[in-house]
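To fix ideas, we quote verbatim one protein's residues and fold tokens.
>
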Amino acid sequence: MADFYQHTQVPTLHHLAAPDPAARGLELAELARERPVAVLLPALFVETRRPALPSILGTLAEAPYIREIVLSMNVMTAAEAAEAVRLCGEWADGKPVRILWNDGPALQAAHHRLAELGWDGSCGGKGANIWLGLAYLQAVGRARTVISHDTDILNYDASVPARLCHPVAHPRMGYRFAKGYYSRVRDRLFGRVTRLLVFPLIRAFQDVLGPQPLLQHLESFRYPLSGEFAGDLETLAGFSLPSAWGLEVAMLGEAHRRLPLEAQCQVDLGFHYEHRHRKLLVPGIEHGLVAAAADVARCLAWQILRDLPEAERAAPLREALRVYREQRAPEWLGRYEHVALLNGLIFDRDEEELALRTFTAALDALHADVGRAGLHMPGMRPPPTQALAELPGFAEQIQEAAL
């Protein structure tokens, strides 16, 4: 039986059928006449050397409702930036493409101008890429709806942007923010940061703080760390976001603070998408899942405790980490072992326990840092709309830097 369970908090739009792609594309094209659609893709230059990005851009080129594509890219030389422009233009086959070279000289200068407002202006990280992309789209003023997803989906097809776009574009739905989710499974379960860190940590905070509205909101999302979302540009450009891995958690927190529940939803994008998975490294090495886990945990704790006075944040954080370590993390590991057993999937308990030790080490490091410096969120940025309004010439600066 297909799953059509509705959580009490956030509307869930399930994957129960496969509409004809051509008909859905034409329907969205008609809807997009009044609300033009842009696709915002965060990427590294190395993605141009991998098979997913050419396929994604080729698929987007065939979507009649998409007006333009913006690639917000990092880690490339000037020669590589020129090559990215050429390659992405070819793969998009005539669809307008703009590339934002985030760590190039022109956009580094734009990012650093945030210091004029007292905010972080670092230009590295996915969050910085998304933030600058939203600022650019708001500055040029062509799009009304924005779709965004990762660029490592190997079996990408036309249903992904269509399913993300439809809840925002369709007037009878009228959502202003849509979060995508899909299954992280092949011959084994992936998504370890979500299932072994985020879900049990949210539950641990609930054990300590009780049923807080934000915790209930975060718990209602099937995959809070997915990189797939869509929204009304004016709404998205009003979000305050961090520059690094806490982006997805921060976005859900901003949606909770700024939107009514009926204006947001989560969308089932389908099953068994193939994409790259981060390697698990030993505790203490700030790469791979360790670095991502540390950033995600910090942002989650900050979102939950930010409204408390500074002096009152350490105690509930310490207690939540204890509950996570002693109760909730082992419980969630057991739950997913049972899922694997029932479905005949590979379940490497040693590796899963290593993941828990890794996440616990990241949380212990976070707790020690909070003890020294307090709970803060590095890399936070003002909403793009605020930066555009308060920094003279900022809109022109980022438009001129687009390749």
Remarks:
- The chain has 15 helices and eight strands.
- The mean pLDDT is 92.
